[in-house]
Design goal:
Blueprint lengths: L1 H17 L7 H8 L3 H8 L2 H24 L12 H18 L1 H8 L40 H16 L8 H20 L17 H23 L7
Helix pairs in contact: 1-2, 3-4, 4-5, 4-7, 5-6, 5-8, 5-9, 7-8, 8-9
Length: 240
């Protein structure tokens, strides 16, 4: 039931914005989605299964946004010259998403607050499996498999950037592109973990803008600068 699946995830996320995950009840999630509690268990197997599916969906949506931003270039500038801007835009998207989506921020940083569902580590027996290894309830496939962590998301950010940009780059410069994208990805993650504190240039009176705007601008500037430096300085070598 794809419609019920998404409605239940939407209801679970909405509940999480209002109260801690430990206070979220399966019966309330089902009611908010307009389905029976049995349908909820049929879809996700347990509350842990629902949590894993919710984290996976939010992470997938974040990565889809990275790919979408990277695909948008400026024809007036030229695809290759606009590479730094596209990567900076993906970095800004990451910062904005982590700011408003607590699950994406937790996956990016590896820091889970008490309010969030901290899914069991990959390979660990989930709490709904008894000691004999017999599931107490059916586990939906969407709840199976390891969830991504910070290292994997950095790698996927980098891979998506390289895939989006490499058609416009000559073969001999692809190692430099790989290095630049990896540097930008790691810098972006560092900015999520420890947000940049924007400051005004000496002797200038800053325009009245929100802290979020200033922070996003600062992060974009950092990524553009790092991308430009690495692209100019990297030497041909093995392709990433």
């Amino acid at each position: 039931m794809p419609a019920a699946h998404e409605s239940l995830l939407d209801a679970a996320y909405a509940a999480l914005t209002e109260r801690a995950w430990t206070a979220v009840r399966m019966v309330d999630v089902a009611a908010a989605a307009g389905v029976s509690r049995q349908t909820l268990y049929n879809e996700f197997g347990s509350k842990e299964g629902l949590a894993r599916a919710l984290v996976r969906r939010e992470t997938d949506n974040y990565l889809a946004g990275v790919a979408r931003v990277l695909s948008q270039g400026s024809p007036a500038v030229g695809a290759r010259r606009d590479a730094a801007g596209r990567v900076a835009a993906a970095a800004a998207w990451t910062l904005r998403t982590a700011r408003v989506n607590p699950l994406v921020r937790a996956v990016l940083t590896g820091c889970w607050s008490d309010r969030l569902p901290a899914p069991a580590a990959a390979g660990a027996a989930p709490p709904w499996v008894d000691r004999a290894g017999v599931p107490a309830q059916r586990t939906a496939p969407s709840a199976d498999g390891p969830l991504p962590g910070p290292a994997e998301l950095v790698g996927r950010f980098c891979d998506q950037a390289v895939a989006a940009l490499e058609p416009d780059w000559p073969e001999e410069q692809l190692p430099a592109l790989c290095t630049a994208c990896e540097t930008a990805a790691r810098l972006t993650l560092a900015c999520v973990v420890a947000p940049v504190t924007p400051g005004a240039a000496p002797g200038r009176v800053p325009a009245r803008r929100s802290r979020r705007e200033l922070e996003t601008e600062a992060v974009s500037r950092l990524v553009r600068g790092a991308f430009a430096r690495v692209s100019a300085d990297a030497r041909p070598g093995e392709r990433c």
